[in-house]
Amino acid sequence: MALIFQASSSSPQEVNETLAGVAWLGPYRNIVGHLVLYAVLGSLLQICIWSWRSSLAWSARWAAAAIAIAVLYGISDEYHQSLVPGRAATVLDVVVDSAGALAAVVAVSILAKLTRRRLNQSE
Asked: Is residue 6 part of a domain?
Protein backbone atom coordinates (compact mmCIF):
# COMPACT_ATOMS: atom_id res chain seq x y z
CA MET A 1 0.00 0.00 0.00
CA ALA A 2 2.92 2.33 0.72
CA LEU A 3 4.33 1.66 -2.75
CA ILE A 4 0.99 2.53 -4.35
CA PHE A 5 0.70 5.67 -2.20
CA GLN A 6 4.21 6.75 -3.19
CA ALA A 7 3.52 6.12 -6.88
CA SER A 8 0.34 8.20 -6.66
CA SER A 9 2.32 11.03 -5.09
CA SER A 10 4.64 11.24 -8.10
CA SER A 11 4.34 13.94 -10.73
CA PRO A 12 3.46 12.94 -14.30
CA GLN A 13 7.13 13.43 -15.31
CA GLU A 14 8.33 11.14 -12.50
CA VAL A 15 5.79 8.51 -13.52
CA ASN A 16 6.98 8.65 -17.14
CA GLU A 17 10.61 8.27 -16.04
CA THR A 18 9.78 5.35 -13.76
CA LEU A 19 7.80 3.55 -16.47
CA ALA A 20 10.32 4.22 -19.26
CA GLY A 21 11.35 0.53 -19.21
CA VAL A 22 7.87 -0.57 -20.23
CA ALA A 23 7.39 2.06 -22.93
CA TRP A 24 6.67 -0.81 -25.35
CA LEU A 25 3.25 -1.13 -23.70
CA GLY A 26 2.37 2.27 -25.12
CA PRO A 27 -1.00 3.58 -23.95
CA TYR A 28 -1.66 0.36 -22.00
CA ARG A 29 1.15 0.79 -19.46
CA ASN A 30 -1.12 2.69 -17.07
CA ILE A 31 -3.73 -0.08 -17.19
CA VAL A 32 -1.13 -2.84 -16.84
CA GLY A 33 0.48 -0.97 -13.95
CA HIS A 34 -2.82 -0.71 -12.10
CA LEU A 35 -3.67 -4.36 -12.81
CA VAL A 36 -0.32 -5.62 -11.53
CA LEU A 37 -0.16 -3.41 -8.43
CA TYR A 38 -3.68 -4.25 -7.33
CA ALA A 39 -3.30 -7.93 -8.18
CA VAL A 40 -0.32 -8.04 -5.84
CA LEU A 41 -2.25 -6.07 -3.21
CA GLY A 42 -5.32 -8.34 -3.48
CA SER A 43 -3.30 -11.53 -3.20
CA LEU A 44 -1.27 -10.24 -0.25
CA LEU A 45 -4.43 -9.12 1.52
CA GLN A 46 -6.01 -12.51 1.00
CA ILE A 47 -2.96 -14.37 2.28
CA CYS A 48 -2.79 -12.03 5.27
CA ILE A 49 -6.45 -12.63 6.12
CA TRP A 50 -5.97 -16.39 5.74
CA SER A 51 -3.07 -16.28 8.19
CA TRP A 52 -5.34 -15.08 10.99
CA ARG A 53 -7.16 -18.39 11.33
CA SER A 54 -6.63 -21.48 9.22
CA SER A 55 -10.22 -22.65 9.67
CA LEU A 56 -11.39 -19.58 7.77
CA ALA A 57 -8.79 -19.91 5.02
CA TRP A 58 -11.10 -21.22 2.35
CA SER A 59 -14.11 -19.02 2.99
CA ALA A 60 -15.46 -16.99 0.07
CA ARG A 61 -16.48 -14.34 2.59
CA TRP A 62 -12.84 -13.69 3.46
CA ALA A 63 -11.85 -13.61 -0.20
CA ALA A 64 -14.56 -10.98 -0.73
CA ALA A 65 -13.17 -9.03 2.23
CA ALA A 66 -9.72 -8.96 0.60
CA ILE A 67 -11.26 -7.69 -2.64
CA ALA A 68 -13.32 -5.07 -0.78
CA ILE A 69 -10.27 -3.76 1.08
CA ALA A 70 -8.31 -3.49 -2.18
CA VAL A 71 -11.20 -1.70 -3.91
CA LEU A 72 -11.63 0.73 -1.02
CA TYR A 73 -7.91 1.42 -1.07
CA GLY A 74 -8.14 1.98 -4.84
CA ILE A 75 -10.88 4.56 -4.31
CA SER A 76 -8.89 6.34 -1.61
CA ASP A 77 -5.79 6.20 -3.81
CA GLU A 78 -7.61 7.88 -6.68
CA TYR A 79 -8.80 10.60 -4.31
CA HIS A 80 -5.23 11.08 -3.10
CA GLN A 81 -4.04 11.20 -6.71
CA SER A 82 -6.57 13.94 -7.50
CA LEU A 83 -4.81 16.15 -4.95
CA VAL A 84 -1.42 15.81 -6.69
CA PRO A 85 -0.70 18.63 -9.18
CA GLY A 86 -0.84 17.36 -12.75
CA ARG A 87 -2.59 14.12 -11.82
CA ALA A 88 -6.28 13.23 -12.02
CA ALA A 89 -8.58 10.61 -10.56
CA THR A 90 -10.56 8.41 -12.94
CA VAL A 91 -13.29 5.85 -12.47
CA LEU A 92 -11.56 3.64 -15.07
CA ASP A 93 -8.54 3.32 -12.77
CA VAL A 94 -10.76 2.14 -9.92
CA VAL A 95 -12.42 -0.40 -12.24
CA VAL A 96 -9.01 -1.68 -13.39
CA ASP A 97 -7.78 -1.79 -9.77
CA SER A 98 -10.85 -3.82 -8.83
CA ALA A 99 -10.35 -6.21 -11.74
CA GLY A 100 -6.72 -6.77 -10.77
CA ALA A 101 -7.60 -7.51 -7.15
CA LEU A 102 -10.50 -9.79 -8.15
CA ALA A 103 -8.39 -11.76 -10.63
CA ALA A 104 -5.59 -12.27 -8.11
CA VAL A 105 -7.90 -13.34 -5.29
CA VAL A 106 -9.67 -15.82 -7.57
CA ALA A 107 -6.33 -17.17 -8.81
CA VAL A 108 -4.92 -17.53 -5.29
CA SER A 109 -8.12 -19.26 -4.15
CA ILE A 110 -7.99 -21.72 -7.03
CA LEU A 111 -4.31 -22.45 -6.43
CA ALA A 112 -4.93 -22.95 -2.73
CA LYS A 113 -7.80 -25.37 -3.38
CA LEU A 114 -5.72 -27.34 -5.88
CA THR A 115 -2.82 -27.50 -3.45
CA ARG A 116 -5.08 -28.61 -0.61
CA ARG A 117 -6.61 -31.29 -2.85
CA ARG A 118 -3.16 -32.61 -3.79
CA LEU A 119 -2.07 -32.67 -0.16
CA ASN A 120 -5.20 -34.61 0.83
CA GLN A 121 -4.67 -37.14 -1.98
CA SER A 122 -1.05 -37.76 -1.04
CA GLU A 123 -1.92 -38.60 2.58
From this structure: no
